[in-house]
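In the previous chapter we treated chains in isolation. Here, by contrast, the input contains two separate entities that must be folded as one system, with a combined length of 790 residues.
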Amino acid sequence: MSSLDPVLLSRILTGLTLFVHIIFASLGVGIPVMIALAEWRGIRTNDPHYTLLARRWARGFVITVAVGVVTGTSIGLQLSLLWPTFMRVAGQAIALPLFLETFAFFIEAIFLGIYLYTWDRFKNKLTHLLLLIPVALGSSASAMFITTVNSFMNAPQGFTLSEGILTNINPIAAMLNTAAPTKVSHVLVSSYTLCAGVLGGLAAYSILRGQKHVYFKKALKLTVVSTFVFAVATAVIGDFSGKYLAKYQPEKLAAGEWHFETQPYATLVYGGVLDENNEVRYGLKIPYALSILAGNAPNTEVIGLNEFPEDERPPLSIHYYFDTMVTLGGLLVVIPLLYMLRKWLPGKKAYPKWLLIGIMALGPLSFTAIEVGWMYAEIGRQPWIMRGYMKVAEAATTADYVGWMLVLFIILYLVLCFSCVKVLSKLFRNKDAMEEMRALGMEGGEP
Amino acid sequence: MSYEIVGITVLWIFLFGYIIVASIDFGSGFFSFYSVVLGHENKVHNIIQRYLSPVWEVTNVFLVFFYIGLIGFFPDVAYYYGTALLVPGSLVIVLVAVRGVYYAFNTYGSSKENNKVYMALYGATGILIPAALSTILAISEGGIISVRGGKVVISWTDFFANPYTWSVILLALVSVLYISAMFLSFYAKKSGDEEAFEILRRYALAWSGPTIAASLLAFFEINRQNPEHFQGMLNHAWMFVASFLCFLIAVYLIWSKKHLGWSFILVMLQFAFAWFGYGSSHLPYVLYKQINIYENFTNDTMAIALITAFVLGLIVLVPSLILILRLFLFDAKYVRGSSAKKG
């Protein structure tokens, strides 16, 4: 194990922790918003179905939160354990959002505890819903603060570097760096998309299994329409992110697009392979599209990869991550759109089977989109840990046994994810929505 | 007061908060498991569950808050402790992860019966985590972490062969059980559960003697490990005397079954006096002779930003903490268990 490069091992271990954490963190950010939406509709329309929906979601949510909390604790500590030099230097400038995040997390934790245990404790139902607002705000604020730290790694600002020491520090400028607006908003809406999609998939699954109760149709409508809105927002913000990259991190865009020569009227390449002379083969080439992505006009000059020294170029494989993300993002808009247009679709059934299967795929599709999008962002920053200031290789730990720690954490995360899935599926199988409606004496307990 | 002192005081207060809430949590795990083994499971287990369920996540945040704040105020801590503690730090993460996740799975998952494996995990991690975390205090006394050829290294032989290390671990373990039993006795009495109260009171009395014995042992072991620090502690001797007086009154109150709320407040004061006496005499070093709060402090701008953020954060945090305590700790209906259950 020790023959492997500790820098590479540190990268793999950090990547592994984040790979697991972002799934649960995204759920943690988006599901409170969806629960609030359902509970609010329940109160507004006085419809107990929506309240039950909120309640059932909350029950599953707390299980995913637990995994999110512990993997978050894990990455928080690993930042110092695996990247001590980075934390020592960057901590001087970027400690503020990390510190603020713990407050946001604190508020979220406190109110989630209160929310879960007070469903029937208040006379006014609105009081209970109000308790969820700090949870939703806390989790979104957590995501925002942490994403500003990642933005800082891409666009380090708010200091001057002299002889390895940061001076003239401005913590606010470091936090509100140029990468922050597009990154933070992209992370937030893509988390909302994911959660709406996952919950929509659950409703579609029940209908596909033969449930005919209006409860499931209401759930489907609420979630799929939400997915559409959030997915469109994600795509629009994604376009802004492209413009950000073109202006401030052109090497990441250029590597992602296999764009070598600086030029206007740049072509966007979709898919394909590179031959030994860096010529694109088999790819779909869309004229002017890259210039439009970069600057909204075909004559925008797009900086090419040849402007950068070879040892400062990100790996060209990120092209595929970018293309996968964009493709999945498109599907996340199209599938909900088909659902919304279902009355005009050919065929007799109101809920055709292929459409339900498509909706069930929304969750996995958005998971994948988030993971590859994140890989595009992180691998696209290579070789830098702080772009332009510190390379990843300079920042990693010099301690031994990183390889063994990697093995330890692989086992930990496998066990955690496996038992999480098991507990969740058991939770919903043992407490069927129909049974629960009957037990609560809701109208239309039978289909 | 200088920024350095403000920063370290804030962090020390949060670490104290963690010690109290986490001790209750860790000890509860041990007592739950112990009572299952002895067969009076239902008598104490329910009390423990009712208190822990809404607050488990909050406990974790205290710890996260402390180390993120520590790195914020003293970035060099990340470098020294981060490099040296890769392996033990990773093990602590795994233990904390297993404990937190399986607690949530068992409590919020659908299975009604208590899983024995889970109970054992919960009990065991309740002992292992405080033991592992307390060793960082032992390392902070110096002599274990050194820099050789520009590389931070830790000497595990010096660490394990050192009686001071073991005295700190021992103190951590008995304190956890003592704090937890004292709190749970108070909580059981408040909920009117006489049977549980009697059992927990016996635990509390049983662990009070060992707590003082272990404290004295650790106190004098510091003298061998780090005479300079010990001298500092003697200069704050009144705090340790006050701590001991609080202990005596707290144990007397629980023995005579009177004013249990006060008894627990005195337990917190007992640890607060000892904790701040130990902490203030430890200064200016965070790691003896290597990290000094004055030399390894972050820049002034960041310090002001962090302190401002802290004050603003407290304005939101304190009312929220009071709210959760009022709803679950001081609400007689909830404590007695007549209020609505979860989700």
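Chain A is about 70% helix and 5% strand. Chain A touches chain B through 78 residues (CB under 8 Å). Compare these points with the single-chain example from earlier in the chapter.
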